[in-house]
Design goal:
The protein is mainly α and 411 residues long. It is 76% helix and 0% strand.
Length: 411
Amino acid sequence: MTGLQPPRTAPAVIGGLWVAFFLWGMAPGYYTPAIPNILHAKGLGSEWLSRAFLAGPVASMVSPLIVGALADNRFSAQRVVGCSGILGAIFLACAFAVLDHGGAPWAFIVLLACGSIASAPMSSMLASIAMAHLKSGEREFPVVRLGGTLGWMAAGFITSYVIFADASPKAGYAAAITRCSCGIFAFFLPDTPPLGSSRSWRTLLGLDAFRLLRERDHLVFFSVTMLLSIPLAVFFMHTPMHLLELGNKTPTATMTIGQISEIAAMLLMTVVMTRFRVKTVLMVALLLSALRYALFAIAGITGGSAWLIGGIALHGLCYTLYFITGQLFLDRRVEPGMRTQAQGLLSLASNGVGSVIGTLLGVKLHDFTVGAGHGGWSAYWWIQCACIVVCVPILAIFYHGMVASKEEAAA
């Protein structure tokens, strides 16, 4: 007699969540890898590139935590996602319209930042909605989240081969239309009412989430996540530029190679999360992340694009094993009334604080190593690789995990 089968979520729920993630992932897939070349085509230098890439991280330092607190305590999560998507799309379309018509670069940056503030909570809140309605999160969430990966890939190929917008603001227009579609679709997701009941200003500002840092493993996880996100911030900012220098004519499409490995990783997550401890998975992800930039550094030495493409192919595996594992870890370890805020805190650590630091330092490091010729791309990527290596002993020594019962042993 076989054991009990895990409960399964209704196909309509899984399908709806998958479409929502597909549209969410598709929007930034149009313009994020293309921004370096779009700004270059408009005659804007590295200082504007850094400002453009700071817009999202700065937004992630504010809105995901506050909006997550509102969803936990005041408003249904799917409605908040819907409003965030539509408002973010309006700002995004206006930003690229300014760039397209030769407007002031500062206007572009301000509008891009406003769009990022509006839409930054969508990622963590979609994850929370999925966790609330999936009956077997560890098995089904990777499948649902795979929609975001495929959406990003589809956008990359459309940008390069359909609308030919690798260096055109048309990529931003396509992203705005898709983000608005995601916002509208979100209103039709399963109702996810708030589980919290607090009305204090501290709670509504999302400050209660910082209580999670009192627990040792949470503190270690969020700290390592922030440190890892510092070198990760430059992946989409400088890899397309390196590709162009090595003769690649379709960098936006080439960057989607990372999503191919992400697909494989997503499909493996159901096995990984049931057979290995969270600590083991996170350690492997860190080591692979370091290897990715090591391959980039070798490409800088040899001038061979195959090394760079090999590193890009590892990106999806690195991202999935670390960040999807992290989202599942938080869903497992955090009380229901705090889960959306916990996902917002993850966004704050990774897309916010870590990315802001990484973007600022990455631009200066690029200007020194590549721009001024002090070691070139090789030195640049070796330094980024070393930043990731530092995370490995921190996680290995200080993260303990829960081993009190069989159910918790994987954590």
